[in-house]
Amino acid sequence: MISSHFYVHLVLLVVCAQLCLTGAGKYSKEKNDFHPKEKRDREFRSAKVQAAWEKAQKLVSEAKLAELHSDLKLHEMEEFKWKKLKAEGGDQDGEKEANLRENLLKLMSKYGIDGGKYEQMRSRNDVEMNMRHAKDAAREFTDHRIKKIWMKAQKAGFSPEELEDLRTELKHHQEKVEEYQMMANEIPDYKENTIEGRDKNVELKQKFRELRDDLGKLDLKISSGYNDEMDFKEPKVKELWAAALRGNFTDDELKSIKEELSHFQKKMDKHSHYKQALVASQQQKEDVGKEQFPQEKQARHADLLDKVKDIGYKVKKHYKDLHYRINKELPIDEL
């Protein structure tokens, strides 16, 4: 007869066997593998780079994926270098980290997987840079006319690079203004009725005109979009228009002046055309000799000569009139 102790031992053995079978999965090799299959299948160790790669699988063509893969590998290497640098106490200001973020975004933008974020970031940076430029210039430019032109440039939609170029030009102009002011302060030291005093006055007036013209050109450059694609090609007409923009004219008056300057330029073009024709006619006359020059061509030559003189006189008179009317509206202290 089997004793009760035997049944107790049998029950305990069954329970232990069940417990072992239940816990086998928990301590199996598969469960204790620290590199599960899904982790081993990752293409990149960096989570951000891997996320970019996974996004690219859905959006980038097969032909471009290989190129993107190489670019991402290079970027990931830079990230590892940065992590090592950071661990050693480097990149305290975070500049390297910021550059890495921007570079990854730029890379994603190149392959069209950034969702437009890179361009948004660039636009935001441009605005911030423009604001910094404006604040710096407020301290940098002391001449109110230069400040006025700079503020106009801020609203003209220039790129940061173009603004920097303009800023440099305006700084150079301010240096010239300061030099002019120093010269003006020295004038009282010279007696006006001496040769030296008269020479200094002539030099000062010449400097004044140069500064006025230079500032006008800068103003015109800004008003015309900085790319020199202006309505007027003749230097004299450009200078008159620049002066008009600085003058005390209303918008309607400026529109009228611009139209008149267009007519004036056409008149100058016409004068230039006849002058060239006259030069060509004169050359023909010299080549064949005065006696051999055909009668009809002699008549045409004389006609060209009359037209050049007549139109030249009208151009000169028109310019003088425009110059007077525009310059009388300039501010008294205009340079």
Automatic annotation (TrEMBL):
Gene Ontology biological process terms, A to Z: regulation of receptor-mediated endocytosis
Coiled-coil residue windows: 163-221
Keyword list, A-Z: Coiled coil, Signal
This protein's record includes keyword Hydrolase: no
A GO term, aspect molecular function: receptor antagonist activity
GO CC, one annotated term: endoplasmic reticulum
Keyword check for Coiled coil: yes
All copies of domain Alpha-2-macroglobulin RAP C-terminal, residue ranges: 141-328
Domain Alpha-2-macroglobulin receptor-associated protein: 11-113
Origin superkingdom: Eukaryota
Residues making up the signal peptide according to the UniProt record: 1-24
PANTHER family: ALPHA-2-MACROGLOBULIN RECEPTOR-ASSOCIATED PROTEIN
Name this protein carries in UniProt: Alpha-2-macroglobulin receptor-associated protein-like
